Amino acid sequence: MNVVIDLLPSPHQYLSHAVDLFVGWPLSATRKSVDKRRAADFDVDVWESGFFPRQPLARLPRAYAAWERALDSAATELSLWEDESDEAAAKRVSGEAWRQQVRSWPVIDTEPLQCNLRLAQRAHLVLAWLVHYYVHSAPEPAPGQPFVVPKSLAVPLVAISQHLGIAPILTFADTVLWNWEFIDASKPFSIDNMRFVNLFSGTEDERNFYLTSAQAEFRGIEMLRIIDEYNNLPNIEGDMTAISKVARDLARLAGIIADISDIIQGVRAVVDPHVFYWDLRPWFEGSDAKGPEAPGWVYEGVEDSDALDLSGPSAGQSSVMHALDVFLDVDHKLRSRRYPAPSAENKRADHGFMDRMRRYMPGKHRDYLTWISTPSARAAGRVSLRELAGRTPQLREPFDNAVMALKKLRDLHMRIACLYIVTQSRTTPSAYAGCPVASMMERLQKSRAAGEGPTRGTGGNELSLLLKAGRDATRRTLLKDN
Ligand code: HEM
């Protein structure tokens, strides 16, 4: 029943359709001649829940109970293979039994789930978590050999991922957008009524890490409305009322971005960098996390398994952050001639990262981003926001203020990434220090440390180059330098 309710438009959407019909005939008329689609057609709710579903995802039907049960028991029965603490070592036997059980499952058909978007998303979440549990609890393969993900997980995960248009691995959606339940089911959707459910490390730090990303995502919903309203304004150029509205909305946007910066900064109070780096992040790693020399993953029973997108989750997959870049026209790919010119370092960075991260989003959300970046999403004749601001003196400064807010966000985010990853890669996991396996941990620590190559982010990219290039591309969006 929840699922049915969830797919209906919200009361706000009914209201907005009604208002359009009543007052907005020129608006509706213009829209209809261009493109009839709305954000809701892309499973985006600009009023209430943004990219989140409005209800928590229900558990899978009985035919898939084995998957759900394995996920329920995973945290108690498995430990990270690279964790040599007594507590982790005590779980090796139950871990092998869990993995053995998973290998013994038949390949279950996911087609019955494909008629319901929320069930398909739930299947993705469950299978993707199981894959990461499986791989990261398993012994390292022999030299030169890959990790093999058994077909009982690999085949259905690839099938459901193809259906959803999302990568067949743990994503931002599986850890943040879909990984929650209501604290109080009688209360409506709100960030304060969300509790994150699946946790690898079982720590409050991990729960808070997901919550921080969710807060940023939640704060971005107002921005989605601003985008929607901009695209739907019937007239802009020469219309002082409309221009004043856009200027006010740009000021609001700068405020939203500043709030998201504060949210990101807030992670420091609730997530211990050491716990993040040593207890949580290893579970996130995808096939390419440790670079080209380390063993990759093979999906048993899947043709061309090496062509799959198998990097792990990253907030770089947050559709809110991408929507922000699209709306302000940040050029991560260095396709436009903008100033200050890219540095040699900028040119060396991975310019395809943000585009690649879109393949880790639910397909409908990716389509939404493509849609809002094309003129067909805008009222007839409407130019992009940056173009309009460039030729409208009253909008130049408000536009640049919003861009500066985003540049500041990326500056701050770089400092957080440095604190949580680069600095931590040079530390020792405290739980193991002084224990008999300290030397093994030292080896591990060394292999992760910068000395053996650059500190890597999701997809094995060079982290600092990547984040700096994103910050500099944002700066290049400023009108005053161009
Ligand atoms: C402890 C907190 C965080 C850490 C350690 C962290 C770390 C990173 C790292 C290492 C990357 C590089 C790409 C990758 O490896 O995936 C990245 C990218 C990114 N992160 Fe975070 N992040 C954190 C929190 C957040 C939050 C709360 C957001 C907001 C939603 C966010 C937004 C982004 C975005 C948009 C990117 C893509 C690159 C860019 O736009 O500059 N991060 N993050």
From TrEMBL:
Alphabetically sorted, this entry's keywords are:
Heme, Iron, Metal-binding
* Single GO term (MF): metal ion binding
> Which Pfam family, an example, fits this chain?
IDO
Record InterPro entries: Indolamine_dOase, Trp/Indoleamine_2_3_dOase-like
- Superkingdom of source: Eukaryota
What does the entry give for GO biological process? 'de novo' NAD+ biosynthetic process from L-tryptophan; L-tryptophan catabolic process to kynurenine
The UniProt record gives the binding positions of heme b as 413
Question: Can you name a GO cellular component term?
Answer: cytoplasm
What is this protein's name?
Answer: Indoleamine 2,3-dioxygenase
Membership in a protein family: Belongs to the indoleamine 2,3-dioxygenase family.
Record keywords: GTP-binding included? no
Instruction: Say yes or no: keyword Nucleotide-binding present.
Output: no
